[in-house]
Amino acid sequence: MPKIVTKDLIKVYRAGKSEVIALRGLDMETADQDLVAIRGPSGCGKTTLLNLLGGIDRPTAGRIEIDGSNLVDLGDADLVRYRRDRVGFIFQFFNLVPTLTAEENVELPMRLAGKALSHRKGRSKELLELVGLANRAVHRPDELSGGEQQRIAIAVALANDPPLLLADEPTGELDTKTGQEVLDLFEKMNRDLGKTIVVVTHDERVARIAHRVLDIRDGKILAGPPA
Amino acid sequence: MGLFPFAASDVLRNRRRTISAILGVFLAVTFVSGTFIAIDSSARATLDASLAGIQGDFSVYAQVSGGTFDYTILRTALLDSAGVTDVSLFRYMPVYQLETVGNVTWGATVLGIDPEHLPSMVRGAEVAGSTDLPLGSIGLTRDLASGLSLNLGDPVTLYTEYYNETFELRRTETTLNLAVIFDLPLSSGGGSVPYPYYRSFGFVHLRDVDEVLLRLNITEPSFQVSGEVWIDRTTYVNPYDLEGTERSLVRIQRRLEAILGPGNFVSNNLLDRLRGFQGQLAGQRLVYFVLSAPVILLGVYLGAVGVDLSHAERRRELAVMRTRGASRGQVVGFLILEAIVGGVIAAILGLLAGIGLSRFLLGAVVASPTSPGNEAFALTMDTLIAVVFLSISLMIVVSYRSARRTASLPIIETLRYYAKGETRIQYSPKLDLALVTIGVADYAFVWYSRGQPFTFLTFILGVIPWLLVPFVPIMLVIGGTRLLTRMTARVYDWFARVSKPFTKDLYYVIRRNLQRNPRRSSNVAIIIALGLAFGLFTFTIVASQQGFEEREIRARVGADMSVEPANVNDATFAANLSTINGISGVAAVVSVTGVTALYCCPNAYAFDTDAYFAVAQPEWWYFGDGGAMQARAVLDTPGRVLVSRSFYDGAFLEVGDLLRLSKSMYNQQGNFTGTIQLNVTIGGVVRYLPGAGFGYGEQAIYGSPQTFQTFLAAQDSDYYRSAPRYLVDLAPGADWRAVKAAVLELTPFVTATQEEIERFSADPFFLAIRGFVSIETAFIVVILTVGLGLVLYAASLERDVEFAGMIARGASGWQTATVLMGEAFVIMLVGLVIGAGVGLATSYFATQLLLVGPPGVGEPPVPFLFVFPWEAAVLILVGCGAMMLSALLVSARIARINVAQVLKLRGG
Q: What pLDDT is stored for residue B26 in this prediction?
């Protein structure tokens, strides 16, 4: 199970002649099977941190250790494997492939990992049942509600059974009731499946179910009490 | 119009979107403007080509009465006239017979010419000997010299015969030395076929004409002096100012008339040709505009795709406009205004690019042996107006439907942050089914009616459909492609499977993505199919046409060479011909003259079967069932003959019928002496036979010398007999030029098949069309490449988030890029299969149908066989390679996508 450690994490964005320092030497640490909420105002670097933890962006400086491995040292091919096998990403706007059915969206990461057909079929059925949408397997995203799409997205993130889940504002586009259903799923995944989950959020309900809440201001973690 | 500033600034602000929208029209306009600029720039060359062959810019005719005449004074006076650069005077002599020491006589036209200012007839001729023409000398054309078997220095007698007061035939003559021989260019003499009759000219020095006539005891109380006057065309003939040119030429003509005086005549040869030039230029523009139709059509299709993409990008923005109170009509009007602004931009850019393209097209729009140099440049107002009008019109055409569709979309659907994908448009196959049905039916009707006699029914079922034939390929490609790519999603299944080896498990994503936007996929596939179909159709038709012409030339000549002796009485000719180095076989084909049959008027030919077949080597398509073997068997049987198909059908004959032939005999004085009868049996039918009885509707009978023995024996003393024609087979590797030069020593009447083919291939008009078509096809490949790249690029922009999400979930950049590459490959494959299939099928049918012509037209003398040239295969390979390269470059962007930036921008 992963333990996340970041040390002096810096990320600078350059756009022409201007520079934006998104992270200014961020240090954080999470334990195995933690459910961590990261809060902060817009532009504080929350999403940037998540992108770095997910291996979809590289830091300007600093270290990111996931279960002892420094992501900064990984090459492109290793990062692909990391994203495929070790991390599941859940987006605010779902980002499902619009031309594929729910079941096919769940299967996609397994196809990319080269998993056999029988495994894919079984696993996707299992995951759709987990998120309560087995009866919507053949529907495309435009035929699903926002909450259903987000639950499918969670199933997609779990497809290759990654130990770490990263969620960026997962309830941002959802109403209260649907958002609660999603958060219940997160609790379930953390409790029953032992997933380490890091959630970037404005939603206070996430803070209430999280083991730890980290506040980010100006690219740094503020010291604060656990949830 | 209040929205115009907004529309204009929108177009100018978003360059990428504007380029995407106007790209197709820009490419079409570039090609058309390049063509028109090339036509404008080569106007002088076109004019020069149309003026080629005229005998003087002005022709003057002065009547002179009695006494000696000083030609120099007249020439100087004409030369002093403003604008005149050269004058050539000549005089026809009343002498029409020449004779050699061997008493061989020949009819000829004799002129007095000025050797220092030769008339156009002999300018450019190859000259043997000296053109000084001192007194006592004569010059002859090569045909005349060969016909009289004369060499330089030989004596030639001019003579004239007349009846005196007591009606006794008298003769006067004078003998001159042959000092010069002129090899006339083919075009001189006024005919394109170099019959010796037209090329028998003799020349003496103009100043010696009176002396020669005196020796012949000929007096001319008055005679005519003719002249060719040449002017400074660069100064006085401006193809861009025809009105000013006409004024200048008329004034020059008046000055020449004043010099000649009353009663004489000046012909304005330039003005006659110029009056048709404006129409010629307009016709040229029209012809090349029609030839540019494939590019314009492709540009329109590409433009429609590009506009569709640009409107799709802005759906949200336009929906916001409508929430602020804009009506649907105002949104449509706004988008049309943008199209007009885009059209103006496309016109400006197209003109600039067209200037560059015109340098390549200069040689392809002028039917002239020499093309204008790159320094020749002109842009007329006509071209400017035409290009701007075309550009704006095309932009409106490609934008209108998309604008109406976009304006009609429900506001709420387009206000969502993520549009839920292309709105499903109900596809109705009616129009496409109609196109395919009409196209197939048209071919079927034309096929049915070919070769049929002309009746009302065949007019309805043949002639009218025949007029539609050029449009059928377009109908089949558009209708067929849209049906296959829009009516069912299965086509994507089939073709996507082909991409499986390199897309592996992602092929199903490709399949679904293509189904998602069937209209866009279909439009791109249509562009590819149209481009390939046009290119293949054009190349195969041109190659098939060339093959047909070469086949026709060979059939007309009969073998590698065809030779006729100058002297019908030359008994040693055949033997001398056979000994020439490089000749491996000679076959004599004797035309049995004066033969009539009970059924119309066939020509009869006699030849030795073995020699003929060994030399002529007639191809399989000359013969019917049974082939050459059966035909030979018929010819080898005395009393049996072969007949041509046109004679067989026209006289309602059958194999086995008896033909009663008769030949009228004439003595050496040309008096009828009787008729000989001969009965033969029809043994078989042939199309024609090469070198004998070739031509449309030619009626012919072929037999062995044994079969026609009775006629041939009598023919030796017949007044109207003609010399045999000798077909010559060259030895492998023999140089036809060397052999021809050797044969010319024996007779001037030799035709070489290879020379005729080279002359045809070098025909300026044919070369111009071929050059234009090649450049156009290359441009089509550019459109295909750009088109595919444009659509993929726009599709990739639209789906950045989707691709970023795939990468974030574990796909590598190139894995994701293969999705786009796979889509491109499938679309290209669909377009390739349909385009190649339709292109080749329509060109095959065109070769089988077009040349035959509408009902009532007879069978062509040689078949129009389908030829698949190597250029067509190259087009497929290069076209596909270029398109995949374009797809690769676009897909590379996906592979290097900044996932975090894309997802961050989209709020992920």
A: 94
Whether B891 and B884 have beta carbons less than 8 Å apart is answered as no
In whole angstroms, give the CA distance from residue A144 to residue A141.
5
Counting runs of H as helices and runs of E as strands, what totals does chain A give?
7, 10
A154 in Cβ contact with A131 (< 8 Å): yes
Would you call B900 and A93 a contact, using CB atoms and an 8 Å cutoff?
no
Residue A48 has pLDDT above 90, yes or no: no
Q: What is the helix (H) or strand (E) element at residue B607, kind and residue range?
A: strand B603-607
State the Cα–Cα distance between residues B714 and B709, nearest whole angstrom. Answer: 9
- DSSP conformation class of B484: I
**Is the Cβ–Cβ distance between B145 and B100 less than 8 Å?**
no
Give pTM, 2 decimals: 0.74
Pairing of strands A212-217, A220-222: antiparallel
Closest CA to B488 of B462, B534, B522: B522
Contact between residue B524 and residue B305 where contact means Cβ atoms under 8 Å apart: yes
Calpha distance B318→B738 (Å, rounded): 77
Cα distance between the two ends of chain B: 41
Q: What is the distance of C-alpha B316 from the center of its chain?
A: 52
Burial class (CB in 10 A: 0-12, 13-18, 19+), B272: exposed
Inter-CA distances, B605 with B558, B578, B725, Å? 13, 21, 10
In angstroms, rounded to a whole number, what is the distance separating the alpha carbons of residues A221 and A36? Answer: 13
Mean pLDDT, to the nearest integer, of A93-108?
A: 84
Would you call A160 and B509 a contact, using CB atoms and an 8 Å cutoff? no
Q: Is the pLDDT of residue B625 over 50?
A: yes
Q: Are B789 and B889 in contact (CB under 8 A)?
A: yes
Instruction: Give every strand in the sheet of A212-217, ordered side by side.
Output: A87-90, A164-168, A196-200, A35-39, A212-217, A220-222
Write out the two tokens for A167: 């969620």
Taking only the tens place, the pLDDT of each residue in B32-91 is: 999 999 988 888 887 887 787 788 899 999 998 866 788 899 999 999 998 999 999 999
A84 interaction partners in chain B (CB closer than 8 Å): 809-811
Determine how β-strand B222-231 pairs with β-strand B58-65. antiparallel
Q: Find chain A residues with C-beta within 8 A of B907's C-beta.
A: 92-93, 169, 172
Pairing of strands B583-592, B725-730: antiparallel
Residue B219 is encoded by which pair of tokens?
A: 């007096």
User: What CA–CA distance (Å, rounded) separates B497 from B143?
Assistant: 70
- As a whole number of angstroms, the distance between CA B416 and CA B177 comes to 102
A51 and B805: CB-CB below 8 Å?
no
DSSP 8-state class, residue B409: S
Contact of A170 with A137, CB cutoff 8 Å? no
* 8 A C-beta contact, residue A90 and residue A153: yes
pLDDT tens digits, one per residue of B441-459 = 888 887 777 666 667 776 7
Q: Which residues of B touch A104 (CB under 8 A)?
A: 508
B819/A contact by beta carbon, under 8 A: no
* CB within 8 Å: A100 and B806: no
What CA–CA distances, in Å, run from B504 to B499, B510, B733, B815, B822? 8, 11, 55, 10, 10
**E strands along B830-908, which residues?**
none
Residue type, position A215, single letter: D
pLDDT digits (tens, 9 = 90+) for B772-805: 888 898 899 988 888 888 878 877 877 888 888 8
Q: CB count, 10 Å around CB of B745?
A: 10
Predicted pLDDT of residue B585: 93
- Round to whole Å and give the CA distance between A47 and A167: 9
> A interface toward B at CB cutoff 8 Å?
47-48, 51, 54, 56-57, 76-77, 80, 83-85, 88-89, 91-93, 95-100, 104, 108-109, 111-114, 142, 156-157, 159-160, 168-169, 172
